[in-house]
Amino acid sequence: MFDSAPLLRDVFGFDDFRPGQEEIVDAVTTGENVLAIMPTGGGKSLCFQLPALLRDGVTVVISPLIALMRDQVRGLQEAGVEAGALTSGNTPEETDAVWEALEAGRLKLLYMAPERLAAGSALGMLRRINVSLIAVDEAHCVSQWGHDFRPDYLRIGELRRALNVPLAAFTATADAETQDEIVQKLFDGSEPRKFLRGFDRPNIHLAFTAKDGPRKQVLDFAAARKGQSGIVYCGTRNKTEVLAKALCSEGHSACHYHGGMEADDRRIVETRFAREDGLIVVATVAFGMGIDKPDIRWVAHADLPKSIEAYYQEIGRAGRDGGPAETLTMFGPDDIRLRRSQIDEGLAPPERRMADHARLNALLGLAEALKCRRQTLLGYFGEQADPCGKCDLCDSPPEIFDGTTPVRMALSAILRTEEWFGAGHLIDILLANETDKIRARRHDTLSTYGIGKDWSRPQWQAIFRQMMGHDLVRPDPERHGALRMTESAKPILKGEAHINLRKDTIRKATRRPAVKAMVSEEDAPLLSALKAK
Length: 533
Ligand code: ADP
Ligand code: MG
Ligand code: ZN
Prior knowledge:
Radius of gyration: 27 Å
Mean pLDDT: 89
Structural class: alpha/beta
Helix content: 40-55%
Bound molecules: adenosine-5'-diphosphate, magnesium ion, zinc ion
């Protein structure tokens, strides 16, 4: 048997394993095939680096980013471990040194970019040396439908078969579908030993807020955390530049980062962020996997991420050192519309699009959650938890009201206008606003005209937003984003189900709501037509 404790201390400088590390290290060291799912910052690298030292021969590490490999190789070398990387970023001297160490049988860890596997010579080279383990970092990159897909990851299965050595795969992405894909593509479907470890990051405070002057919301959030390192994620490149400027003019040290920048400029930002205290990077999701800074104190989303997994990964970059960290995610109807249309207009097959809508729904459900966000978030990953006391909803529980009546009013207005309009016009109908559009279409004759006057316009906006959040209605890209009813709205419309909504974004109506039949007899044919769909 082996004793990993001295290596842990002497080479890596840690007194104890983090939760989950030890059992993974044991399994990998004894040569089991392993799939380990651990949150970002959970300490996955150690789970293959330590076994690499305990096993004979070389461990080949496949990793998606050159910067990530270089950091790890440098760290290992500084700790006195023989490690090297073969990447397109190498100088000829570096490559020579790696070969020399390999041929002398000294090298313990060989990092390789997946693209290297495409070159025919790589396999021959690896066959000649004593490879005893393959470690795959960020294994979700093998998932064709995930946000980090790397086609060359699909070659890893071939590599495993050719070398016939154990394989250990690591990722922070937890959903069952991605796990299945990893098992299929990396292990040819034969189940590896699985480790699924604690997704909770208790030091990260979770909060969402509906957009209401979003630029000021971001600036206020940053102002309250002046001098702390943070990331602001934006949905567009242009916005990263605009917001970075705004932050600078408020006296912050801030810069932008996105995929349209020159590689050199991006590297400058990465290096500054790693070295400087208190820098804010305003970025698109291009600023991602390679970021290894332990003391990021906050992450703000100026726009809604695309899925609950993306959200989790992005906020997970905060507080890796275990110290307190804060997050704020902003969202509004425009975000929902944008994310839905990105899915609908993408090239994925229909069943994939359904899954993507479901992942977006999970995030929207989190955004509109009525109780502890952490419970909701962990619940999605299959973990149970008590109310956390460290999220905005635990801090101040939202006031909840039975929203069935206004929701049915809104759904009727949608049906009466045959699902051809967006929230703005529908609210005009409900409030009997005599706009030109209302007059032109004779919408003042509808049975729903003016039935919603007991709520104000902002209240209706909040109701429509929550209806989208609960996936009762969806914008249809083929109808310029007109809202269409989904299956899940039908029970509410038919009076078979109730729905609770949050009151926090809704100011009290001055008049008492009149109770009124929301679905008239005339709606019946429409309803049955929909049911038949
Ligand atoms: P992951 O790849 O899971 O996101 P990393 O391997 O990058 O996580 O580790 C995250 C941080 O945790 C690193 O700064 C690392 O040095 C630190 N770390 C890992 N294992 C331990 C440990 N046993 N004790 C203390 N710190 C650790
Ligand atoms: Mg990692
Ligand atoms: Zn909570």
